[in-house]
Design goal:
Order of helices and strands: HEEEEEEEEEEE
Number of strands: 11
Keywords: Coiled coil, Membrane, Transmembrane, Transmembrane helix
Helix content: under 10%
Protein name: SUN1 protein
Main location: nucleus
Largest sheet: 7 strands, antiparallel
CATH architecture: Sandwich
Structural class: mainly beta
CATH class: Mainly Beta
Strand content: 35-45%
GO molecular function: protein-membrane adaptor activity
Number of domains: 1
CATH topology: Jelly Rolls
Subcellular location: Nucleus inner membrane
Length: 191
């Protein structure tokens, strides 16, 4: 019985920890899954240390918005933007009916400071089509810094789309920057 539980856990881990198709994966970028815009969001300097101890840099942010659709969620391997607010507009690899999305950040245990104050807190998710200026609001959400590092937010939206916008409204207290590690969109392919 223990072996069955362990095998199920290992299988889920090997299935990108969700067991669901991610329509934003790095390996589908060639098939048009990509970051389209950060709107007017200013990203942080790439060589600015995210964490330093006694003047020694422990990790740097990658700064590139592409980090959000990459599978690597090691400390400092994130998209950073100045302040506590920012936007990302992303083209999915294909048009889908959304069923859920996930937002992932590093756990506090992997943070050299033991805190994740740069993690997104309140955020909105919009869907767009090619011709919409502002999109349709899917919902307002909160990433729980005390919860699991990977948090799933189910949804039920009846319209297929290919563009999604993530608007971070606040973080957990860092005044200088916010880190976005990984965002995933799950759903069913539109026919």
């Amino acid at each position: 019985q223990v072996q069955t539980i362990v095998n199920k856990a290992l299988k889920l881990y090997s299935e990108d920890r969700t067991g669901l198709v991610d329509f934003l994966p790095w390996n589908l970028e060639a098939k048009s899954g990509s970051i389209l815009s950060t709107r007017c969001t200013e990203t942080s300097d790439a060589r600015k240390a995210v964490v330093s101890l006694f003047g020694i840099s422990l990790c740097h942010a990658t700064r590139s918005p592409r980090a959000v659709i990459q599978p690597d969620v090691h400390p400092g391997n994130c998209c950073t933007f100045k302040g506590s607010q920012g936007h990302l507009v992303i083209r999915l690899s294909m048009k889908i009916y959304p069923t859920a999305f996930t937002l992932e950040h590093i756990p506090k245990t992997l943070s050299p400071t033991g805190t994740i104050t740069s993690a997104p807190r309140k955020f909105l998710v919009y869907v767009n089509d090619e011709y919409q200026e502002s999109g349709t609001l899917l919902g307002a959400y909160v990433y729980d810094q005390e919860g699991e590092p990977l948090q799933m937010f189910p949804m039920n939206h009846q319209t297929a789309f290919q563009l999604v916008e993530l608007r971070v409204l606040s973080n957990w207290g860092d005044e200088d920057y916010t880190c976005l590690y990984r965002f995933r969109v799950h759903g069913n392919v539109a026919q």
